């Protein structure tokens, strides 16, 4: 199982945003692209993946690859799934997630709770981390990424407490959705060795 | 200079499409994501890149990194640049490109003409190609990709005539925009060796 935890800042925690103006909705466009980068292949989707979007530390929206139906690769339709989840946010009680569409659920988990529930080997992605090509891929990686803002000091501290290591995907700082694509490539090729 | 040539099939060659329904416009959503994957970094854009979208063999829209202004990472605003280029398509005469917004131009080049004008080392991306990790990155790579359809036999033949080699980015078939992201990572890390 591969998991990606994407920490969103200043993103909507209510469904009152327009699908036609996702860049005006706290960079929900970027979070939507993170979801599609996590799942879509040329033919079908990756079933052994979970993506968690942490929305301002208030809610988390969870995507489960083995149960997703009809995920399209465009950001608008993915953002619509997030909006539906937020419409049903009152059904999420405590840390218990409520499914809002097949394979998509919402909970009141913050970043710490999402990481604690994820299990697996937590890898913080950061440009100052160790180069990923020199590291054997773990069996159940949990990659932690931030949106266009860096993690706050508080978020970074709680990730570092739980992370096995901090890894870098390359010398240039890239967007979170592109980082997910590269991380998948690292795992698909078993550390850039199998093609 | 890094170049990416993306071959679009059944895509609009006139500007009569809705920015709110890009998946209904011959997968223009995918082509738009190819452009942003080609250019955007966390802070700024890649200036040493050109992306060419070949639209049904009738027009090509060219993006020049050193001249682009205000390219946003969401697919809708990038698709708007393509639409503007198509609105001005009558200004493209023969193979001479007409600039339609800063760094964006349109020409009547087909795939063969785009490749012949690109120069550099042409690399066809295909899942049956040689694993890219074992290949030294060329100085001026020109990657050729197709949209969600495979290249036609005719297109494949003319690419193969001009390609130095056929390379694979990994064992799983991924979308063209994700392939561009992985190709950049291969080049950024000098063949997965520099982090």
Which structural traits does this protein have?
195 residues; alpha/beta; homodimer; 25% strand
Structure commentary:
Two copies of one chain form a homodimer. Chain A has 195 residues and is of the alpha/beta class. Helix content of chain A is 29%, strand content 25%. The first copy, chain A, has helices at residues 28-39, 75-87, 111-118, 153-162, 176-188; strands at 2-8, 49-55, 59-64, 98-101, 104-107, 121-131, 141-146, 165-168. An eight-stranded mixed β-sheet of chain A has the order 4-5-3-2-1-7-6-8, sandwiched between helices. In chain A, strand 1 (2-8), helix 1 and strand 2 (49-55) form a beta-alpha-beta unit. In chain A, helix 3 packs parallel to helix 4. The A-B interface holds A 19-20, 22-23, 29-30, 33, 37, 40-43, 72-77, 130-134, 148, 168-175, 178, 181-182, 184-185, 188-189, 192-195 and B 19-20, 22-23, 29-30, 33, 37, 40-43, 72-77, 130-134, 148, 168-175, 178, 181-182, 184-185, 188-189, 192-195.
């Amino acid at each position: 199982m591969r998991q990606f935890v994407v920490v969103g800042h200043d993103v909507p925690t209510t469904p009152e945003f327009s699908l036609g103006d996702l860049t005006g909705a706290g960079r929900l466009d970027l979070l939507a692209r993170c979801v599609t980068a996590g799942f879509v292949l040329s033919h079908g989707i990756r079933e052994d993946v979970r993506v968690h979007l942490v929305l301002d530390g208030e809610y988390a929206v969870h995507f489960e690859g083995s149960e997703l139906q009809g995920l399209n690769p465009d950001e608008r339709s993915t953002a619509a799934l997030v909006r539906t989840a937020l419409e049903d946010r009152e059904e999420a009680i405590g840390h218990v997630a409520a499914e809002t569409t097949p394979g998509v659920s919402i909970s009141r988990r913050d970043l710490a709770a999402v990481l604690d529930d994820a299990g697996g080997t937590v890898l913080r992605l950061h440009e100052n981390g160790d180069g990923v090509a020199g590291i054997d891929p773990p069996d159940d990686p949990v990659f932690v990424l931030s949106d266009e803002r860096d993690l706050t000091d508080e978020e970074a501290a709680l990730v570092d407490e739980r992370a096995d290591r901090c890894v870098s995907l390359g010398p240039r700082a890239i967007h979170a959705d592109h980082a997910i694509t590269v991380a998948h490539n690292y795992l698909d090729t078993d550390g850039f060795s199998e093609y």
